[in-house]
Amino acid sequence: MEDPVTVDVRSDASRLSLGWLRAVLSGLGIAVGLAVLLVWVPEFVLTTFTSLERSTRVTMATSWFFVALGLVAWALRRLQARRLI
Fold it and tell me: Which residue ranges of the chain lie beneath pLDDT 50?
């Protein structure tokens, strides 16, 4: 029987810690995903759907931006709660 005062808790802490390589790769992946969702897609909508009026395209791009921003915030919070990032 182990003494509860001398139990090594570093194994739990090391399991929960995020290594440098994983942190850098996660950050890079998140940055690329954000750029695609929040910059490239609205720009694509504005430049591709030329048959629509400009105000309609702007409304679509703006709506996409804010919906995607909300989804990204929610997804990042869920990943953080599960200690994946």
Answer: none
